[in-house]
Amino acid sequence: MIVDLKRRSFAYLLAGVVMLVAGLATVLLVVDDSQAATPGLEYGQIAVDNPDGGTAATSSSPGSRIVGGSDTTFEKYPWQVQITGNGQPLCGGMLIHPMIVMTAAHCLVDENLNFLPVTFALFTGRTQSGTGGEQLTLSGGAGVANNYVPSTHDNDYGFIALSSPSSRPRIQIAGADERGLWRAGRAAIVTGYGAIAEGGSQSPVLKHLAVPILDDSTCQGAGSYGAAFHSSVMLCAGYMSGGEDSCQGDSGGPLVAPADGGIYRLVGVVSWGVGCARPNLPGIYTRIAEPSLTQIIASYVQNIEQIENFPGQNNGISVVGSGAKPPGCSAANSAAAAQQSKYNKANKAAAKARKALKKQQKKLRRAKGKARKRLKRAVNKARTRANKGTRKAKSAKKAAQKAKAAASAACN
Ligand code: 4AZ
User: Fold this and answer.
1) Residue 141: CATH number of its domain
2) How far apart are alpha carbons 328 and 407 in whole angstroms?
3) Pocket of ligand 1 (CB under 6 A)
4) Which of 32, 240, 319, 412 gives the lowest tally of CB atoms within 10 Å of its CB?
């Protein structure tokens, strides 16, 4: 059924008051005013196509897909959402909450911050673009950060509310104690049904691509995006050599960082770029995992929970993760512990050998005559053993220190 709600634009202001203009009625709604520094969520109604009777048309419209990378399945990235507009693939998105899908702001609003004049439909469980999986039931509520700037792509993220929870696993945003997951040089993964080449055709299947997180300075460089790259709200990832990248149609989809134990955290939203896979112009993602930003996002989510009056346990959901460590951290910690225990043992053995040597030396000092010859041999033997033990302990100490440093690098 097409629920074509007249678009109403109203702002939920931090001050805690909302002016709802619908016809002649002005309704005041009190929202959480505990976050005075939080920019307001621009919230309103989008036109939606819901599952009951809604048909999901397959499409071959000009769209996009990841350039390079390889085919994957939704089971590996079960939070992945396909967003269609008027039945055509429009954008990616991800479940960050049982009843909230996060996407790019530019997938929801135009350059004047008006909701796109299309009917939205959302799907999970899709390995194939445009078919299969399950359609999410939307409330019609959607919002973008009110500091989203279409011309610069600053704060390019938004939310779509569901009216019944999805059973698909959601993805949590990397938390303040998980900064190590997305340091420059770490490999993140972008997924989507977008273009397989700049200006190219849609991917018929979900694709994934590993992209290294790049230093802000790299993308700020004169040969790259220069001043257009705003490091406080953007994150860049990909290859300066070009060749592989996210592309049109992947927008709004997730950039995730793998963590130890086979889990993932959300670190970016596919946002923009100059072309796709061009040298020196890697993909730009909305920065969302910075603690100052996750705080704002968490407060938006709280606002949405209140505005939408979600049923039951679908409230107070923490959309920010904690405690996840980079891949290989736990193995590196185990290796470091093993080296430390090796060193402890070697150290003990060396101390014992040195003690034995002292004992023999004492005996030798007190010995007279014939016994000295035998004791001298014993002292020499004990010295060799003590020296060998000390050397072994020394090298074990070095190895333990090295393993400890490696674990520290792997875990932070
Ligand atoms: C887009 O227009 C788009 N190369 C998405 C990602 C990138 C460029 C453009 C990154 O949706």
Assistant:
1) 2.40.10.10
2) 9
3) 245-248, 250-251, 270, 272-273, 276, 283
4) 412
Query: Using CA atoms, how far apart are residues 218 and 366, in angstroms rounded to an integer?
Result: 73
Residues 345-360 pLDDT 10s: 999 999 999 999 999 9
Confirm whether pTM is higher than 0.90: no
Looking from the CA of residue 245, the nearest atom of ligand 1 is 4
User: Do 86 and 203 belong together in one domain?
Assistant: yes
Ligand 1 centroid–CA 193 distance in Å is 12
**Domain end point (choices 279, 314, 349):** 314
Q: Residue 270 in contact with residue 283, Cβ under 8 Å?
A: yes
Q: Ligand 1, from 82, 214, 276, 284: best to mutate by most atoms within 8 Å of Cβ?
A: 276
Name the domain count of the chain.
Answer: 2
Tens-digit pLDDT profile for residues 129-162: 999 999 999 999 999 998 999 999 999 999 999 9
The protein residue whose alpha carbon is closest to atom 3 in ligand 1 is 248
Which atom of ligand 1 lies nearest, measured to the CA of 67?
4
Q: Is residue 75 part of a domain?
A: yes
**Active site positions, annotated:** 106, 156, 251
Identify whether residues 335 and 358 lie together within a single domain.
yes
**Segments forming the whole domain that contains residue 285:** 3-314
3-class secondary-structure state, position 290: coil
For 299-332, what is each residue's pLDDT tens digit? 999 999 999 999 999 999 999 999 999 999 999 9
Ligand 1 atom closest to residue 251's alpha carbon, by position in its atom list: 11
pLDDT-based confidence at residue 6 (cuts at 50, 70, 90): very low
Q: How far apart are CA 122 and CA 83, in angstroms?
A: 5
The number of CA neighbours under 13 Å toward the Cβ of 274 is 14
